[in-house]
Design brief:
Length: 392
């Protein structure tokens, strides 16, 4: 494996940094605005999803998969059974076939990959010197890497395209008992397993001279033990017929998403046999995880935006690097505390709209945090000097 690197040293004056810092204020304001919208929208989404699932849990009807009951037309139904297909999926270029619901070709190409690492040093007077090291290694990647964007493209050229890109084949008809799954339900089936090529598998005539197959991998190149840039390796994954559980709206002998009065839709599918209650519990758990993930993302956006807004302060103080570091640390602390307060306030306002009681509690909590912040800032400010004693 090849490995080389290139180092670049760049400098920026204090005036240049000041200009960029003030430009960063605009970017920071945009990020803060996005954070407000994201946090507010997320709370509404979470409440609507919660109410939708609550409504669905009370309306769902468990049915047998072996027959279609017209009496359940339009209802939210739950059923379990074996998802199967009569089709055999076949990759047209490699001739790999399987009686599967999904057949996925995973193609990787051996390519040059660029990594960069930067180290910034502050200089007296407010300027900076940045040392950036670009490292080049060869490795496998499922994505085509454009070497034209490399810092040093010479000697690190990658092919312009992948001869055999990844792709997925899906059975056109998938059934569960007497029912046919909709395309959206089939899309929820992601329980892939590796497909092993049997000893009887042979590469098609057009590919036999380019490589060889071993186990579950097809290698297109000279030597699998010493790959070269442009070599391809291909493996396959499949979704086999399996037991599934689903919750959706019954429409004749198929399904569609159930529209709840709460405003959301319900369409659930899990591998294995699960009760309707367990499926709704899992859906609520997934909703909670997504809600907290988006809250964390909104908080992070808010923090980054506030740091950019306060950025000019540390740059102004960087005339003396030590002062700049102190001011920068303080600005980061203030940005973090403000981001927490503003995020809590945004969530609280959203909850006042969607969950009034909890929203008021959150607002009180945010107010308490803001009060503590102001108290600490006052304590941190230097006390006024005492007047001198009167002359005797």
């Amino acid at each position: 494996m090849s490995n080389d690197s290139y180092t670049e040293v760049s400098s920026q004056s204090w005036f240049g940094r000041i200009g960029n810092a003030f430009k960063g204020i605009l970017v920071g304001l945009i990020l803060v605005a996005i954070a407000f919208v994201l946090l507010f929208w997320n709370e509404g989404r979470a409440v609507k999803r919660y109410k939708t699932l609550q409504e669905g849990g009370g309306a769902v009807v468990s049915v047998a998969a072996d027959k279609v009951d017209p009496g359940n037309q339009g209802k939210l139904v739950h059923l379990t059974g074996k998802a199967a297909t009569a089709e055999t999926l076949s990759d047209p270029e490699f001739g790999v076939s399987s009686p599967a619901i999904k057949l996925k070709r995973v193609a990787e190409m051996y390519q040059w990959q660029e990594e960069s690492r930067s180290e910034e040093k502050k200089k007296l007077g407010g300027g900076t010197e940045t040392i950036t090291t670009y490292s080049y290694n060869q490795g496998w990647s499922t994505d085509l890497i454009s070497s034209g964007g490399f810092k040093v493209p010479e000697g690190h050229q990658n092919p312009g395209q992948m001869s055999y890109p990844s792709q997925e084949l899906v059975a056109s008809v998938v059934t569960v008992g007497a029912f046919t799954l909709s395309g959206s339900l089939v899309a929820l089936m992601r329980d892939y397993s590796p497909l092993t090529l049997g000893a009887e598998y042979n590469l098609p005539p057009g590919l036999a001279e380019k490589g060889k197959a071993s186990g579950g991998t097809i290698y297109l190149g000279r030597d699998p033990g010493s790959p070269r840039v442009g070599d391809i390796r291909v493996s396959f994954q499949e979704v086999r017929p399996m037991e599934i559980s689903l919750v959706a709206r019954q429409v004749n002998a198929t399904f569609e998403p159930y529209q709840a009065q709460a405003g959301g839709t319900i369409e659930l599918l899990e591998p294995g046999t699960h009760t309707a209650e367990a499926m709704f519990q899992q859906a609520q758990k997934s909703n909670t995880i997504l809600t907290w993930a988006l809250r964390g993302g909104g908080l992070l956006l808010m923090f980054i935006g506030l740091q950019l807004i306060l950025g000019p302060l540390s740059v102004l103080a960087d005339v003396v690097p030590l002062f700049g570091s102190i001011v920068g640390a303080g600005a980061g602390l203030i940005a973090g505390l403000l981001a927490a307060v503003l995020s809590f306030c945004t969530i609280a306002v959203a909850w006042i709209v969607y969950r009034p009681l909890l929203g008021i509690i959150l607002l009180v909590g945010a107010g308490a945090v803001a009060f503590l912040l102001l108290t600490r800032l006052r304590k941190a400010s230097p006390a006024a000097p005492l007047p001198p004693p009167p002359p005797v």
